[in-house]
Specification:
With 391 residues, the protein is α/β, with parallel strands linked by helices. The protein has 2 domains: 168 residues, Aspartate Aminotransferase, domain 2 (3-Layer(aba) Sandwich); 113 residues, Aspartate Aminotransferase, domain 1 (Alpha-Beta Complex). Helix content is 39%, strand content 13%. The strands form 4 sheets. The chain has a 7-stranded mixed sheet with strand order 2-9-8-7-6-3-5, sandwiched between helices. Helix 3 crosses helix 4, helix 10 runs parallel beside helix 13 and helix 11 crosses helix 13. The protein starts with a strand and ends in a 5-residue tail after the last helix.
């Protein structure tokens, strides 16, 4: 069986090592040093979650006032981070072929608005037109925050690494990301023009949360291994019911909490070898692109997942499930995901019609270490037979 999510970055051996890894202050320092070197930065701060790092980036970039431009296809935790920093989101509609906003859309959206910063998300690792967006940002005195939750290891069209261009760079080490320590994140400060006092996170993560983070890969491996028998589904339901596992969007923001040393050690190891992971995922992505050209959108630069647009998403997902491929965890099924929290953000659908329509048709396919060429070929055969092109 193939899963798009549920711990695909972990084999049993990796999950076991994750459970028992120990770290110290030196491991956190090594991670900070690597981040500052890799992203040519002034300073790097480590957080218990990526959204905490993003909240601090927004606070420093805006002074905790005004609006922040953000893509209209995003995650609830991004909006939560913006509001935690004292600001409000300004949604910018996307282009359906790139899944990103462009400079023209940004310019139209910020007209007559008090916009202090723009978050460049590079969703699904697909690079934005960074030079044009930077021009708009400079014209309107907006700070640029590069959000690498999906984009670690990716490159812009001109060859510059994503994360080396803006004023701030945020990384997420959350589950299913390119760097995956279940929770965690970092803020890389690349400017001296900060609008507030930098507040390094100092509080420790509660023991119960660290325990959840330690056992999650083993829990995920168990669910995957026992899913066919039905027992995996029961374990999955029981874990969330009893809060042994917590949905990522329900964790809160907590910019005051720092990254535990053991997760810093794991993040450092993964960041050092990120190029190898990107190469593997891009190799898998190439198979999809060659087989499913008619369905593809702009290519991811790091291969985190392979997105496509279909007319009949529900039918395709059902056929994939029948073949043992679980791909329901699409990024994103509504403009601000997850759907269960969508109404709480009061998304302005009338100003972002492309995002509203695109999120009804997007799905994405696995490129992770647990899928091989034969698996991808099987998936492509199902798509070719069952999917209708969204026009």
């Amino acid at each position: 069986m193939i899963f798009l999510s549920i711990g695909p970055n972990y084999t049993w051996a990796q999950a076991w090592r994750h459970m028992w890894t120990r770290g110290n202050k030196a491991d956190a320092s090594k991670l900070q040093s690597l981040l500052t070197k890799k992203y040519d930065a002034q300073k790097a701060l480590l957080f218990s979650q990526g959204r905490g790092a993003l909240a601090e980036a927004v606070r420093l970039a805006t002074g905790g006032e005004g609006k922040v431009a953000v893509t209209s296809m995003t995650c609830f935790v991004v909006i939560e981070a913006i509001r935690t920093a004292g600001c409000e989101p300004l949604y910018v509609d996307v282009d359906r072929h790139t899944l990103q906003f462009n400079a023209d859309n940004l310019r139209r959206a910020i007209k007559s608005e008090d916009v202090r910063a723009v978050i460049v998300q590079n969703m699904l690792g697909i690079p934005v037109e960074i030079d044009e967006i930077m021009k708009v940002a400079h014209e309107h005195d907006m700070a640029v925050i590069e959000d690498l939750a999906h984009a670690v290891g990716g490159q812009y069209a001109d060859g510059r690494e994503i994360g080396t261009v803006g004023d701030y760079t945020m990384l997420s080490f959350g589950r299913d990301k390119m760097i995956d320590t279940i929770n965690g994140g970092a803020l890389v400060i690349r400017t001296t023009d900060v609008k507030n006092v930098v507040q390094p996170p100092l509080e420790e993560v509660p023991t119960i949360q660290q325990l959840r983070d330690r056992i999650y890969p083993l829990f995920a491996c168990s669910v995957r291994g026992l899913f066919a028998s039905g027992l995996g589904k029961c374990i999955h339901w029981f874990a969330y019911k009893t809060k042994i596992a917590v949905r990522s969007a329900d964790d809160g923001t907590h910019p005051e909490r720092t990254l535990p040393y053991w997760q810093a050690k794991l993040a450092h190891e993964q960041l050092k070898t990120i190029d190898k992971k990107v190469t593997m995922r891009l190799k898998n992505q190439d198979i999809y692109q060659k087989e499913l050209t008619d369905f593809s959108v702009a290519a991811s630069s790091n291969g985190v997942r392979w997105p496509l647009l279909v007319e009949n998403r529900s039918e395709v997902l059902a056929k994939l499930k029948q073949a043992g491929v679980y791909a329901e965890d699409v990024w994103y099924e509504v403009p601000v995901s997850p759907a269960r929290l969508y109404k709480t953000v009061h998304f302005p659908e009338e100003t972002c019609p492309v995002a509203v329509q695109t999120t009804k048709h997007i799905l994405n396919l696995p490129t992770h270490q647990l899928v091989g060429a034969e698996d991808i070929t099987k998936i492509c055969a199902i798509i070719k037979k069952e999917a209708k092109i969204w026009k």
